[in-house]
Amino acid sequence: MTRHATLMFEGKQIELPVIEGSEGELAVDISQLRAKTGLITLDPGFGNTGACTSAITFIDGEKGILRYRGIPIEQLAENSSFTETAWLLIHGRLPQRQELDLFREQLNRHAPLHEAFKHHFEGFLVDAPPMAMLSAMINTLSCFPRRWNTATPAGPDEEFYEEAARLISKVRTIAAYSYRRSMGLPFIYPDPKLPYVANFLHMMFSMPYEQHMASPEVVEALNLILLLHADHEQNCSTSTVRVVGSSQANLFASCAAAVGALWGPLHGGANVAVLEMLSKIHHGGISADQAIKLAKDPKSGFRLMGFGHRVYKNFDPRAIILKRSADRVLSQLGVNDPLLDVARQLEEKALTDPYFVERKLYPNVDFYSGIIMRAIGIPLNMFTVIFAIGRMPGWIAQWAEQHADPKARIARPRQVYIGNTISDYVPIDDRR
């Protein structure tokens, strides 16, 4: 039996259907609200608005739950890899061994960029932001049909999966080349003998005369960062993919737009803000105790970045996993870095301070991912790029899910107009 919510407006009663998700989440279906009443809803930031139904990712912020296709993130972090998780998100199930082997082969095959891409990179200033290059180059992929290095797939589904593998593979090559361009270093070709993450680090840090071989601990840590960022429900950049994709824009245009959304400091730039805060504390001669005290004073203007989360009202489950990884990496590398020392001191203080504990302001995924990436030598301007590489499978899965939905419509939010009422044009000489 369908449940309904009742809306009373100007003496008229309207019944609105209530939709229940597979995990018991309830939503009032207002799709016919304007047609029946002339009303629209106002929800700045869409914090109370469900724009779609989705079978990809489930989050329960109160309980600290994150699942991809129903599988708890803890199980994937323990047993899976980024590439297998990418396949899971896009296909909706775990792969058979031969399917995973084929996917890895596709990723290897698609890793090189067309040689003409080098000329596009040369068009950027050396100090151009890597995120700007990443967005532009993902769009540029639309201009380079994949048929130059692979056979034509048998049908539309196979063509989409091939394009998905192409984008997931090439985004790390583009990212590495963006970094090399910003450093004035020669581009390093991908090595087909290396797995996904190790290959990316090779393209980032190798030199023509010396190949960079990352330690297993570093590869595992970066693999975890990518896996834990692979999807996160309808966040800003994912919503961007769906809004742009709703116009029937292609996969590359939609994901390039998502990179722009991710670039913002309130979204993908959050771990950059963590390192900038740590630098401010260190260079300002502020102790961890003083920083904690300032964070608790609303008049100080100081904000402790990397603590708490808009969605998770308890521990961020990704942070719990990355904390263990950060401990291993820092121990293995033996890094002597004052900013990382500040981070560990803040973590220790915040986890025991009653103010933070009572408000459940625990370190989040951005706090630990920033620590790990600094420890393994990834520069600050590449942090958000790494985030984009990790989120790419989720963006692709969301784009595909939307395009497969026969009820999907072009996104067209309404507004409540608060500007001038009708006003006459005034000739320029008569204006006062």
TrEMBL record:
The keyword Chaperone does not apply. It catalyses: oxaloacetate + acetyl-CoA + H2O = citrate + CoA + H(+). InterPro entries: Citrate_synth-like_lrg_a-sub (IPR016142), Citrate_synth-like_sm_a-sub (IPR016143), Citrate_synthase (IPR002020), Citrate_synthase_AS (IPR019810), Citrate_synthase_bac-typ (IPR024176), Citrate_synthase_sf (IPR036969), Citrate_synthase_typ-I (IPR010953). Keywords: Acyltransferase, Transferase, Tricarboxylic acid cycle. It comes from Aquisphaera giovannonii. It holds the Pfam family Citrate_synt. It comes from the Bacteria. GO terms for cellular component: cytoplasm. This is Citrate synthase. GO terms for biological process: tricarboxylic acid cycle.
